[in-house]
């Protein structure tokens, strides 16, 4: 994700929709806050480009591996929070907490839609995990009422097969994602995002709430406002009157919220003594295991399965390499 100059792009998030003469709200008078989700190569940048189009106004705030943009599209004020590709994958506990805290702070006090970018030609195991994690962290209605599947890489779909036919006859896994989002989906084709934004507005209308919030987003907003006051106070004490960038700086500093529902994503840091014991034991086993386990690659797989997780994968690969070298030397001496 490309970096950029950080700017204060915050404006009051509360909506003040104007009524037309017929008493209906003009959809173009609404503000929309969209949170983009997706794995590596899911096409999120394509979604951003489609929404940006040729905006009359655009500003950007980059927060580490997050990016927040605010644009005006066809009279709408649209805020896009682009999340990192590893948001819902297993990582150390503090990193998981930091990223979900930043996601909440950048989206506070509430949002209108989670847009899950899904390549139409790839398996969907990780995308299902993403939706389940969003449910745990932001609440079940974050998905059931405020999430939509965006199918990307539509050029990989055969021209003689419609998307709905493809989902119903060939891709039960993708259909499951759509069903978790109450049937809401959109095929991203070309650069015109007008239909997508209209679907988001219809989703908001059907949800019965002008903006989606939850305890985490409410706590994030409270902390951001506290940080804003602290930053302004510090600036005044230094004799500075500049208030530009205060909101963006405050959002970047909120990275330690209490986030529920992320236990499955948190990798515990192994005790060094445990790692040492495992390594010494495995090296000792190498003296006899190759005689009982056929093949160094199989041995490495066995070790990886025994230890488990990323640590097991790394140790398995290392043990496999060591076993290969031990076997080579034994054969040479014999």
Structure description:
The protein is of the alpha/beta class and 334 residues long. The chain is 47% helix and 14% strand. The strands form two sheets. The chain has a seven-stranded mixed β-sheet with strand order 2-3-4-1-6-7-8, with helices on both faces. A two-stranded parallel sheet has the order 5-9. Strand 2 and strand 3 (66-73) form a beta hairpin. Helix 3 (125-138) runs parallel beside helix 6 (172-180) and helix 12 (296-307) packs antiparallel against helix 13 (309-333). The radius of gyration is 25 Å and the shape is globular. The relative contact order is 0.13. The model is unreliable at 1-25 and 287-298 (pLDDT under 50).
Write out the strand line-up for the largest beta sheet, numbering strands in chain order: 2-3-4-1-6-7-8
Range of helix content: 40-55%
Sheet having the most strands:
7 strands, mixed
Counting DSSP H or I runs of 4 or more residues, the number of helices is 13
Unreliable spans are 1-25, 287-298
Label the structural class.
Answer: alpha/beta
Number of β-strand runs = 9
Q: What is the overall pLDDT average?
A: 78
Query: SSE order, as H and E?
Result: EHEEEEHEHHEHHEHHHEHHHH
Overall outline? globular
Portion in strands: 5-15%
Beginning-to-end CA distance, first to last residue: 55 Å
Q: Over all CA atoms, what is the radius of gyration?
A: 25 Å
């Amino acid at each position: 994700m490309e970096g950029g100059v950080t700017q204060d792009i915050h404006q009051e998030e509360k909506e003040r929709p104007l009524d037309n003469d017929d008493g209906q709200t003009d959809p173009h008078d609404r503000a929309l806050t969209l949170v983009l989700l997706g794995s590596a190569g899911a096409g999120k940048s394509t979604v951003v480009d489609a929404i940006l189009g040729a905006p009359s106004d655009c500003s950007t705030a980059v927060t580490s591996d997050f990016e927040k943009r605010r644009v005006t599209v066809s009279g709408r004020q649209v805020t896009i929070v682009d999340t990192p590709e590893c948001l819902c994958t297993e990582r150390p506990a503090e990193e998981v907490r930091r990223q979900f805290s930043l996601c909440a702070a950048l989206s506070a006090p509430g949002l209108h839609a989670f847009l899950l970018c899904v390549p139409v030609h790839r398996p969907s195991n990780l995308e299902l995990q993403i939706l389940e994690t969003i449910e745990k962290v932001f609440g079940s209605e974050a998905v059931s009422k405020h999430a939509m599947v965006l199918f990307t890489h539509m050029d990989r779909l055969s021209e003689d097969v419609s998307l709905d036919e493809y989902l119903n006859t060939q891709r039960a896994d993708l259909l499951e994602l759509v069903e978790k989002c109450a049937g809401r989906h959109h095929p991203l084709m070309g650069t015109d995002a007008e239909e997508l934004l209209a679907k988001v507005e219809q989703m908001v209308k059907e949800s019965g709430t002008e903006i989606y919030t939850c305890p985490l987003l409410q706590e994030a907003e409270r902390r951001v406002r506290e940080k804003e006051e602290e930053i302004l106070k510090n600036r005044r004490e230094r004799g500075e009157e500049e208030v530009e960038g205060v909101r963006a700086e405050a959002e970047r500093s909120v990275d330690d919220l209490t986030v529920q529902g992320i236990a499955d994503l948190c990798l515990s840091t192994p005790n060094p003594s445990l790692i040492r014991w495992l390594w010494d034991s495995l090296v000792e086993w190498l003296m006899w295991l190759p005689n009982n386990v056929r093949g160094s690659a199989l041995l490495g797989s066995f070790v990886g399965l025994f230890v488990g997780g990323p640590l097991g994968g790394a140790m398995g690969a290392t043990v496999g390499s060591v076993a290969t070298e031990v076997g080579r030397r034994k054969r040479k001496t014999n």
